[in-house]
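Notebook entry, structure prediction.
Reason for the run: the old model in the group folder had no record of what sequence produced it. Starting over properly, with the input documented here first.
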Amino acid sequence: MSNWKLINKVYIYDGTFDGLLTIVFDCYSSKTLPQNIKCENSYVNNFLDNTVFISTDYEKSDRVFKGIDKNICYDALFNSFYAFLSDEKDKEINILKYLCNGFDIGPKINTMLTLSYVYKIISLKRNVFGECHRFKGLLRFIEIGNNLFYASIHPDNNILEILGHHFINRFPSQNFIIHDKYRNLCFLYNCKDYMIKEINDFVLPDISEEEKLYQSLWKSFFKSVSIDERTNRRCQMQFMPKKYWQDLIENP
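New structure, fully documented this time:
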């Protein structure tokens, strides 16, 4: 990428993965790199920036999506998507450099960790993948209606859709809601279809009597297996970080 032209522009996009892949297509075609890439919802207008809005083109993004798997490797696609789900502020420009260089040199891009953007993408992927794995075991559903279950989460990264698909596979015959309270997003599933919707004023209804019974039984079990004299909050926080406690039924 040493012969690529760095242009004094900041690309603004709609915040979707397809939108970012559209930018990858345009940049690789023109062999140019912008100064930065920002999401339109979070970008603060700056008179020093020369901004250009890049509209999402699904034909371009589809070509890049298939091209990553074909010309780089599936891992590059996996790494890019998981890095995209992170809350890192400069993730887009790093993904752009990672993919464009990957198209030039192929699968060995993942071994070139001395390149700062490659190392960053691999690190972000590991962080997001690890958090998603933890929530698959930590997420607590409660029954709020007839075969309707609800769970709240406060993840560092935007892992809602990945979690939603995981629990669709586990509980295909259950209606459920997974609520990301940090981002005011809800994953809604009705045993047939799913959608992700922004909800700013979600009010949790009263839980069912059966749910109250199960919660009481679980808390009793949790208390009975613990030994008060051996309570060690510091040790607990090493194995179960305190930021997760607010979404646990057995929250001390």
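Summary: DSSP finds eight helices and ten strands in the chain.
The old model has been moved to the deprecated folder.
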